[in-house]
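Blinded run. Sample ID left blank on purpose so nobody reads anything into the name before looking at the predicted structure. Input follows.
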Amino acid sequence: MKLSVAMITYNQECFIGQAIESVLAQKVNFDFEIVIGEDCSTDGTRAVIMDFHQRYPSRIRPLLRDRNLGAMQNLKETLAACRGRYLALLEGDDYWTQENKLQTQINFLDDHPDHAICCHRAQVADETGGGQSRIHPTLPAGTYTFADLFEGNWMMTGSVMYRWGSVGSLPDWFLNLKMGDWPLHILVGRAGKIHLMDEVMSVYRIHHGGAWSSLSHLDQLRATTEMLTALDKHLGFQFTSTIRPTLVRLYFELACQARQDGNRSETGRHLISCMRYGGWRLPASRRLLAGLAAYTVIGPWYKLFSRAKTPTGASQ
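Blinded prediction complete.
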C-alpha cells in the first residue's frame, strides 16, 4: 500500500461527508486507503461513514469503536491500523481543496528521500464569528527541520504527509495530551527534513465543536506546556535549550493571566517555572517579571506587616 489517509472523528455529522468526498476526489496513480477511526459518536456520523463504506468498500476502512476512547487513544489506534508507506492526516471536520494534493506530495517525497514530511499552506476558516479567513502558515516556503517546530505548530493537520514507519507505537504520555498533531509532527520530523509547499490545498475549520478551538486560551497554554515538557523528557533532554524559549514564553503568559485573575499562588507557580527555564532573558520583560514577583512575594508580606501594625481594637 502506497498511502494511508488517517481520519479520526467524533460527532462530526455535519462535516465528515465533505472530508471523505475531498479524499475520494483525489486524482492519483497509486493505491491508497482511507482509515477512519469513528469514536462512538452520538449523532449521525457513523451512518454517514458507513454509507460511504458501502459505496467504496475497497477504499474506506472504518474502525468503529464500541465505546468512546477519547481523541488521543482513537488517534493512536487509527495510526496503528494504517498500512501505507506514506501517511496523510485529515480530521473529520476539515477538507482538501485540490484534487492533485496527494499526488503532488507523493511525487515530492518519492523524489526527496531525505525528507520525512511534506506539508503545504491551508486556509483557516473561522466559523465562530471570531475572525476572518486567513492563510497559515505565513513562513516562507522551503526546507525546515523538526527543531523549527519547537517554536510553534505551523503545520496544519490536514496539510501534512509523512514518510511513515519511523515512529513506531506512540508513547504512553501521548494519551494524556490535549493535542496530537504537534507532537506527532516532531516525532516524525526527527527522521528527516520538512518541506513546506507554497500551495494552499486544504481548509482548517475553527468552530464551536472543535476539540482544540473550544478550549479557553488558558487551557491551550497549559496543554502546550504539558506537551512540550513531556516531549523534552521523551527526547532525553537533548533539545532542552531549543525548547526552553517557547516554555519561557508560555509560562510567562500563564503567570500574567493568573495575575490578571487575581490568583497569587498560580502566579507564583508559573513565575517560578518561567524563571527556571531562563525567563530573565526575555527581552524587555524584566520590569514585568519584577512586578509579578512583587505581587506573589511582597504583597502577602505587606498585608501581614500592615495587620501587625494595626492597633488593638482598631478597625481592620
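Unblinding after everyone has recorded impressions. DSSP finds nine helices and ten strands in the chain.
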